[in-house]
């Protein structure tokens, strides 16, 4: 067996072993890589604009980010926390109103009974979850933050260390794969942040114009859940519709119409424009990846399914399709050019 084959076999075996024993660790590392890409990309952007070193740009962005978060918490944190508590307190009565509506409209109840979402979701008992009992959510968040910070400070250290695990003949390709993965993640993050901002602002403003209570926190929730394409907006709409139903059926219908309008704007106007230079994922592939990772790895698997799919699609297209399949020779000796 050649050194080339041995390096690939050892790495594949190590990856599969970690995936089997501690898939949550791999997800935490990938989440940290996302944070690192965000910090490094933003720092590099500032460095290019100010004509300073990349490390200085990273430091400036990190300070600005901390100041912005602290300022947001100081100015709006208390109000949002109060609205979160109001949302939690109001959901039981909203659910009760929805139940009463269903009791009064038997045809709707029959439709709900016919569609049982729990029957479609495989049991996740025994599967890995990022929020493991040993570390907890807070511990994992700290780990992700530190992985992201150290990765942003010295990315070349980790890239070169990983590439060194491959045989010399494979190192150039391995490094290229990592670089292209970073390009895919930067493009996806840029598109997601723009979409999140647009959805949050439009949803919050629309709910406020409808006279809905808790419009601010529902807008923030809509923005945050836009991080999970396709499925996230549906989850964000549930509490808003329930609260709207407690105000009246007509209000709930207006809320549904608002969320559909915002998602239409985001899906057909905003996202296509910001994704022109990044990986554009087919909706069916995105939903399939979300369902698979959600069932296998829980809520963080669901949240990270789309960026993972973006990386896999870019790598598969560039290195498997273009550099491997498209190089197949025809009987006459010429490449098939994409066949």
UniProtKB/TrEMBL annotation:
Keyword Lipoprotein: no
Keywords from the UniProt entry: Membrane, Transmembrane, Transmembrane helix
Compartments, as annotated in UniProt: Membrane
Membrane topology reported for the UniProt record: Multi-pass membrane protein
The organism's place on the tree of life at top rank: Bacteria
Residues passing through the membrane, by range: 6-39, 59-81, 141-167, 188-210, 216-245, 252-271, 291-313
Predominant localisation class: membrane
InterPro entries named in the record: AI-2E-like
Family to which the UniProt record says this protein belongs: Belongs to the autoinducer-2 exporter (AI-2E) (TC 2.A.86) family.
Record protein name field: AI-2E family transporter
Organism (species): Tianweitania aestuarii
């Amino acid at each position: 067996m050649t050194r080339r084959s041995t390096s690939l076999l050892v790495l594949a075996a190590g990856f599969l072993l970690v995936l089997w024993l501690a898939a949550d660790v791999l997800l935490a590392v990938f989440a940290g890589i996302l944070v690192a890409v965000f910090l490094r990309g933003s720092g590099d952007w500032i460095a290019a604009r100010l004509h300073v070193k990349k490390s200085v740009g990273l430091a400036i962005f990190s300070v600005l980010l901390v100041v912005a978060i602290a300022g947001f918490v100081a100015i709006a944190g208390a109000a949002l926390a109060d609205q979160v508590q109001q949302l939690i307190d109001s959901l039981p009565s909203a659910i009760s109103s929805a139940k009463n509506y269903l009791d009064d409209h038997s045809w709707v109840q029959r439709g709900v009974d016919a569609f049982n979402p729990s029957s479609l979701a495989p049991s996740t008992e025994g599967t890995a979850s990022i929020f493991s009992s040993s570390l907890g959510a807070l511990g994992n968040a700290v780990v992700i933050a530190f992985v992201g910070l150290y990765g942003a400070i010295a990315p070349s250290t980790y890239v070169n260390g990983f590439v060194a695990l491959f045989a010399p003949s494979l190192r150039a390709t391995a490094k290229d794969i990592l670089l292209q993965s970073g390009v895919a993640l930067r493009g996806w993050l840029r598109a997601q942040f723009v979409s999140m901002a647009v959805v949050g602002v439009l949803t919050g403003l629309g709910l406020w114009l409808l006279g809905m209570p808790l419009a601010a926190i529902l807008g923030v929730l809509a923005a945050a859940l836009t991080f999970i394409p396709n499925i996230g907006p549906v989850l964000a709409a549930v509490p808003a519709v329930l609260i709207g139903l407690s105000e009246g059926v007509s209000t709930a219908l207006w809320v549904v119409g608002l969320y559909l309008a915002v998602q239409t704007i985001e899906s057909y106007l905003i996202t296509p424009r910001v994704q022109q230079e990044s990986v554009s994922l087919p909706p069916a592939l995105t939903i399939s990846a979300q369902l698979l990772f959600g069932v296998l790895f829980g809520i963080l698997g669901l949240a990270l399914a789309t960026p993972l799919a973006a990386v896999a699609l870019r790598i598969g297209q560039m290195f498997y399709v273009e550099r491997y399949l498209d190089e197949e020779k025809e009987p006459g000796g010429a490449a098939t050019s994409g066949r």
